[in-house]
Sequence to fold (524 residues):
Amino acid sequence: MKQELRKTPRQKLPEWKALAKHQKALKNVQIKDLFTHNPKRFDEFHLNHESIMFDYSKQSITLETIEKLTQLAKACDLEGWRSKMFGGEAINMTEDRAVLHCALRTKDTRPIMVDGQDIMPQIHNAMDKVKSFSEKIRSEKKYTHIVNIGVGGSDLASSMVYEALKYYSDREINIHFVSNIDGTDLMETLRLVDPEKTLFIVTSKTFTTQETITNAHSAKAWLQGELKRTDVSNHFVAVSQNIELAKEFGINDEHIFPIWDWVGGRFSLWSSVGLPFCIAIGFDNFQKLLDGACSMDEHFKNAPLERNMPVLLAMIGIWHRNFVKLPAISITSYDQYLWRFPAYIQQLDMESNGKTIDRNNARISYETGPMVLSDTGTNAQHAYFQTIHQGSSVIPCDFIIVAKTHNPIEGHHNKLLANAIAQTKALMDGRDNENPHKSFAGNRPSNTIILDELSPYNLGMLLALYEHKIFVQGIIWNINSFDQCGVELGKMLANQIIDEFDKDIDDIKSDQSTLGILNYINNK
Ligand code: F6P
Fold:
């Protein structure tokens, strides 16, 4: 029998109950009718911050919904938690850590204290080191192949930013990313590089991650073989908090770039973890990326909640997840340079908010982080958009559009933009047809986010927008968005299972299915 969970405090809030009631009242509302009844709807339901525009008019919400969502955010003390985060309190309570990725991009010169120490001088020193090292690599051209070895937060954001800002990159330096423990990832990369001119960046906060350390050792062995010498230390640098293990691996002290436990892996691109893309695009562009993020941080800190872009983006997500009860979201970016954004955003959102235990250690009885579908437009349209248009679940969409392209080949960009806009319209309007297979119910919600162009500054704003969206949702759900306990069990079991290969089947103690799989593989 399915056990009913006790209602957790969030659901007992009058503001939560008011939203549940409000949703019932809006159940039959058609988005397109909201436009018919209000000629100023677009004006009222869009927001600009510098060169980013957020249109949330194609949502089945009213101004009353926004007011009620804002009241819920206030009741959950969003403003208090926001101050705690920016102030350096240990809001990642399961790991007893502060959450200070915003400190990496602040222009505020005031000290930020962690464990009685001002962290700002450490940040500035690290950035100076990244600046001088990247400038040296860019000017000398001694290394023309940079291979970042890292996984998860030590790979995804860095590779995404590199691809997103490739237009600004030095094409004489090739940046590669190796993340998978599958030897194919490393081998196919090594086939592309010249050993003499290759620099490996081992990015691992802990320097214990199995994938990264295995790849790093194999890369080192390969290089030793290719260069026919054992000391290859001048081909390796590390980004890590674990200086001892990085040194033990053979990396010189001065080539270890710091990272701190108050920066979560998936929020770390603003630190030395950004070294690979900094080498590609140069430090000035890295600084612009930081400045863009800082601008969004300031907006997030200071704008009233009902005119606050990350808060609105987050709260509309809360509306869908907890009141309309929708299981997934889709985020499509209509710019090819953002082709790695899907993998990045999946980790950012799903590793942060895929939780079911609240901050009081109680199991929660409402929905939290949604499944995130993501791809670039128009590719997504030819892949999963059938479900978006006619599937049995409504999947709210974010359309990220870039108004000006870096590559204005005649006849392309307008078609790309037209496709994006057409999707939002098709989802809202639907279409009646006498053939039921060809009819579209419509009334499917979407947000449109428009960047003037994909510059480092604008990308910084966009990424900070989504970081803060995820933070806000974590606060409403009363979960810790900054740990990732859920990935640990699989890692531990993988280490145990390694020992079972080549054992006699009678000596392995496991469940039937696992035994069957091991037996099958061992006989191959
Ligand atoms: O996926 C789990 C995780 O712990 C991520 O949070 C982290 O970004 C990644 O592994 C890599 O960790 P590290 O930088 O310590 O190698």
